[in-house]
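Why run this: before we spend reagent on co-expression, it is cheaper to look at a predicted model of the complex and decide which construct boundaries make sense. The entries below are exactly what would go into the expression plan.
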Amino acid sequence: MAVRSFERDSLSQRPFALQWLWQAGYGARTVVLRGQGSAQKEDEDKVIRRIDMIVEEITPAIGARITATTEQVLADGGPERILELLNARGVLVFPQLFLSDEGLAALANRLGDMEAATVTADGSDVNRLGIYRIERGKTDTNHADYVAGNDYWHMDGTSYDVPGKATLLKCESPPKSGGETDFAHLFAAFAALPASRQNELKQLEVIHCMRGAMRYVYDAPTEADYARWDAVFPETPHPLVWRMRDGRHTLLIGSTAYRLAHHEDDAGRAVLEELLAWCTQPQFTYQHVWQQGDLVIFNNPGLLHRSRPYDEHSGRILHRATVKGAEPIVAA
Ligand SMILES: [Fe+2]
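The model came back. Tokens follow.
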């Protein structure tokens, strides 16, 4: 078998997605074609195929769709390339990769330090690997709240000073209807704001808490509900704008953003709602429709995400692994 790589001139005539790959430095080894060759050449090809993935941009602002094998994503160089793409594109989709649970945990550990799902351990079989099983119908109230809260735009880990770096979601069983996952690229949305508005926002402080997320889930919370939420995630102040080490900016908004500090509640929430509406416009978003075996990885600090409604009989089951954050929230 032989490997043929497109040269710069021929790649420049490829469709838009492949041209982007070239510009991003992935072009030379992106497209692999098979032919006839010697056994030695075949060995060389195996080495090359381990690290080559086919990558296509989903929209100009967000997402990349990656065609790869499970061996490629775990091979030497695979996780490093995935991290680069993740930082650039926010969301990576591996359609029907059918990665094993062990492979999911291994990949999470290769992308950084895996955060074992101890806090959200639910007694499912995959917990032994540190994986959390997302499904409707959990009887424990905290778990039911946790899963229900995923239906609203949010960033994971806003109760911490260092939110998680990445989340990996693997589809065990797709929903019969509904249950898509939406993503909004906060880096792109903030960068598209006028400079004067960016500077105003950099002065603000926001309060996150579980009360914020649960106000959408509960019509009439009781004192016992408030006490339970405050025990899990009390009011936690953050700068509204988080400056990342690479110089990009993200916004600490979403359902857990309860109010702005030093503002009347209504005035502060108006700002938060205005920003949410801005960041979730179609040009900054991508909706993933799940198929069995899909793997989706998202760059948590740079995104909002949510699941679309589905009922507990839809059959939707995802396995989730998370990678610990390495960047503390700092003001812009
Ligand atoms: Fe989430």
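Residues 1-37, 46-50 have pLDDT under 50 and may be disordered. The chain has two domains: 1-51, 53-323. Bring this page to Monday's planning discussion.
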